[in-house]
Amino acid sequence: MGGRGVDFVPATAETGAPTLKLAMQRSGRLTQDTLDLLHAIGLQFESYGQRLFSHCRNFPLSILYGRDDDIPGYVALGTVDLGIVGRNLIYEENAAVEELLPLGFGYCALVVAVLRDSPIAAPTELSSRRIATSYPNSARRFFDELGGAPDIIELSGSVEVAPSLGLADGVVELTATGSTLLLNDLRSIHTILESEAVLVANPVALADPGRRVNIDRILMRIDAVRAAKRYKYLMMNAPESALPAIRAVVPGLKAPTVVPLADPGWVAVHTAVEEEAFWESIERLRAAGATEILVSSLEKLML
Ligand code: ATP
Ligand code: ZN
Predict the structure, then answer these.
(1) Which residues surround the ion ligand 2 when the cut-off is CB under 5 Å?
(2) How far is the CA of 128 from the centre of ligand 1 (A)?
(3) How many Cβ atoms sit within 10 Å of the Cβ of residue 32?
(4) Per DSSP, what are the bridge partners of residue 199?
(5) What are the backbone angles phi and psi of residue 296, rounded to the nearest 5°?
(6) Structure confidence by residue, pLDDT tens digits, 128-159
(7) Which residue puts its alpha carbon closest to atom 17 of ligand 1?
(8) N or C: which end of the chain has fewer CB within 10 A?
């Protein structure tokens, strides 16, 4: 099968236009955001119920729904060309895949935590103790690099209760807000990895020009949707004399668009500002003399 070794399902039809395959989580924390993203980039497909596969009506792409733990392997083996999965799982599986793009959701961190009143202050102090985790490879790799060799106890759930049950001296766990740690009297003493959902690709698929074309189309669309989220579109009226001050606040993507108004000496200014600096920009614009500031969201932004 195209010399790609282990290959359960050919990712490319032997003849005709290559249809890409993408794996995503069937049901879990990443599912809704992933579906939202795929719809936002214009893909039309059915995603209801417990289906295993969807075919896009308007793009050469099939979607495979799976357990998140299996996705790094699917991509590494070439069962699918693309995957959307937490970076933490790529790290856990040590999967030979290429990270193409962080996606801006599913934020969490893999941390080392101990009981709140434990005297342990640093991971090295756990070197020869017991660690409970659902991420045994990540935990082992981390402590290997520290030069320690704790007993790693693999649990598939409720890892956070292991220390209070006396089952372990520490845990290696994912946390998003820290509330689960807090609830279980745990305190993080080290962050192993910052994670978010990422788009990953099989290296062979990336090197195949036929599939690469469509992978690039998907990348371009995701970039446009993500760029649009980073910006707000502003329209405001201002006296012409305020323009230099306004330009200093909002350089715009290139330069703001300035349109003369019927009122002599007045102009309308259109520009995009980064969401992060949004409120500060508005305050400075008002101080510079801008009035009737209108703000709208962007849907797509091609830079
Ligand atoms: P599956 O049934 O697919 O195996 P799961 O229960 O193992 O699902 P989820 O809990 O849905 O997995 O988490 C999926 C991913 O969401 C994680 O791998 C991680 O990247 C991300 N994530 C974000 N916040 C958290 C959190 N607080 N705890 C755990 N994972 C989180
Ligand atoms: Zn899982």
Answers:
(1) 68-69
(2) 28
(3) 13
(4) 84, 101
(5) -135, 160
(6) 999 999 999 999 999 999 999 999 999 999 99
(7) 86
(8) C
